[in-house]
Design brief:
- The protein contains 10 helices and 8 strands.
- The radius of gyration is 25 Å and the shape is elongated.
């Protein structure tokens, strides 16, 4: 049996050695004969010494290096790694060692028992602020409210996929997929493993809460599996019509009863309210139109510059 472990990384030279050592130790600790593995590192256009370090380690470990032609982001890199993987099962995890590789020892037995998708979810997230935790939980609530899938809170990208689960995901042609959602949407037998997430082993996070990536992931999570926001904007428009009718009746009543107050405050408030509703609705439509625009271009999701495999 072959296990593929996929890593998407950018500038992680301080973590790579420890990461590979712990993954190697975890897989070899599994009490199962005839198990082999490959490590697929997808280099998202790093500008440090990560690639050279991986090349130097190829003599000792079964490492495949996929160098992207430019910086494409996490999801395209993960899909590139899945596409190049050959394992009966594929494990994807980050390269910062916040997710402990030792969980692999629990994943493989569950896979052998028939699980197709093995998620991990974080019971604690050490080294992260309470505000970030609160914002993350609320984001999951909003995504689950609008979408037709149920994402377990604090279930990240660290997961195991069976070969048939990988094949289903690779069959999708979406240009801007939401990987966490796709692994749930395909169904099949899914199980969950709890764990405590550690702080980064070394270096600094590439995705702070205020960076663009969490915001884009949040938008992908809502728009990839639901058109409910479009209906929400429609209902908001209906609500605004009732509010405007009430304001018209109030304004006419005030005028005929003779206690209307001179000034423009009411007009300004009304204009501000309805303008905000219109802009909000247009904003939601723009997000979906932008996704349609990207899909109709038909561009590839990523371009690989080179692949470096271990010389046998």
């Amino acid at each position: 049996m072959l296990i593929s472990v996929v890593f998407s990384f950018r500038n992680e030279e301080k973590n790579i050695k420890e990461l590979i050592y712990r993954v190697d130790r975890s897989i070899k600790a599994i009490n199962f004969k005839n198990i082999d593995y490959e490590l697929i590192f997808v280099n998202d256009y790093s500008d440090d010494n990560s690639e050279n370090l991986l090349v130097s380690l190829q003599s000792k470990y079964p490492i495949k290096i996929i160098n992207m032609a430019r910086k494409f982001g996490v999801c395209p890199c993960v899909l590139a790694g899945l596409n190049e993987s050959k394992g009966d099962a594929v494990i994807y995890m980050d390269s910062d060692l916040q997710d402990p590789p030792e969980l692999i020892e629990k994943m493989i037995p569950l896979f052998l028992e028939g699980a197709d998708v093995i998620h991990t979810f974080r019971t604690k997230r050490h080294g992260e602020s309470k505000f970030k935790m609160y914002a993350t939980n609320k984001a999951y609530d909003i995504i689950n409210f609008f979408s037709d899938i149920e994402l377990k809170k604090n279930a990240g990208d660290f997961k195991l996929l069976s070969r048939r689960a990988v094949n289903h995901i690779l069959s999708f042609k979406e240009i801007d997929p939401y990987f966490r959602g796709l692994s749930v949407w395909i169904g099949l037998k899914q199980v969950f493993i709890p764990y405590e997430r550690n702080p980064r082993y070394a270096g600094s996070s590439k995705f702070s809460l205020l960076s663009s990536n969490p915001a884009l992931e949040f938008i992908r999570g809502i728009t990839s599996f639901s058109v409910a926001p479009l209906y929400f904007s429609f209902m908001l428009g209906i609500f605004s019509i009732f509010i405007s009718l009430f304001l018209v009746i109030y304004a006419l009543g005030s005028k005929f009863l003779g206690f209307a107050v001179n000034g423009m405050s009411g007009v300004i408030i009304s204009i501000a309210f309805f303008s905000s509703v219109i802009l909000f609705s247009i904003g939601i439509l723009s997000i979906y139109i932008s996704k349609i625009y990207l899909e109709t271009k038909g561009r590839p999701r990523y371009i690989i510059d080179s692949i470096k495999e271990k010389i046998k």
